[in-house]
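pinging the channel bc i need a second pair of eyes. not urgent but kinda urgent?? the chain im working w is below, pasted from the shared doc
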Amino acid sequence: MSTIQVRTEEKTKRAAMKILKNLGLDLSTAINIYLVKIIAKQGIPFEILTENGMTPAQERKILKEMEWALKHGKRYSSAKEMFKDILGK
């Protein structure tokens, strides 16, 4: 066996331990389950999302597209003008 030391906020640890206790697990067992899942998946066993609810890759792509649109995109003086252009009327 090996020992892992992890630093976390006391509040986070207490909240996690309370939930795990209700599941019949201790913190050490839960962390071991997490490590086994990392190995099985060969990565993080859940999707990591930004604060905007996107993956980091999705967010980078949108920001890049937005930057391009701001630099090269078409501009309209009104919504009416935009719809006229889009609908070809």
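so Residues 48-89 form one domain. and DSSP finds four helices and no strands in the chain. — does that match what u expected or am i reading it wrong
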